[in-house]
Amino acid sequence: MHSGSCLCGAVTFEVSGELAAPDACHCQKCRKHSGHVFASTDVPKASLTVQGEDRVAWHQSSEKVRRGFCATCGSSLFWDPVFRDWIGVAMGAFDTPTQTHLGVHIFVADKGDYYDIADGLPQKSA
């Protein structure tokens, strides 16, 4: 079991089971949503339990994706491909050790010009 929360604690969550290696998304939408790079792990929606779900605000950023954040403190929490059975959970929102490590950088062609990716992990342009 892995637990997490937003900055103010209005939203808490638990994920049952092991976490997949997270990805770091460098696309413009993820950078704007998170303030930098959005690192998340994809989990089955059935394994995610959210308390304070009424405090989660959703922004429909495209026809296929909505992004969840705490309506009180603004913490970025979820990346939800609405037609899939999984959801991305922000790595920075976990309160407990995750026993995982970043696996890949995605959308690196869109990354900000103010940083370099030099950790040796695989990089995908899209």
The end-to-end distance, rounded to whole angstroms, is 31 Å
Order of helices and strands: EEEHEEEEEEE
- Briefly note the structural class of the backbone: mainly beta
Strand order of the largest sheet: 6-7-8-9-4-3-10
Question: Helix share of residues?
Answer: under 10%
Q: How would you characterize the overall build of this protein?
A:
It is a single chain. With 126 residues, this protein is mostly beta strands. It has one domain (2-110): Metal Binding Protein, Guanine Nucleotide Exchange Factor, Chain A, CATH 2.170.150. The protein is built from 1 helix and 10 strands, in the order βββαβββββββ. The chain has one helix spanning 28-34, and strands at 2-5, 12-15, 23-25, 38-44, 48-51, 56-60, 65-70, 76-81, 86-90, 104-106. The protein is globular, with a radius of gyration of 14 Å. The relative contact order is 0.27. Keywords: Lyase, Metal-binding, Zinc.
Describe the SSE topology.
Layout: E1 2-5, E2 12-15, E3 23-25, H1 28-34, E4 38-44, E5 48-51, E6 56-60, E7 65-70, E8 76-81, E9 86-90, E10 104-106
Parallel strand pairs: 3-10
Antiparallel strand pairs: 1-2, 2-5, 3-4, 4-9, 6-7, 7-8, 8-9
Keywords: Lyase, Metal-binding, Zinc
Protein name: Aldehyde-activating protein
Domain CENP-V/GFA: 2-116
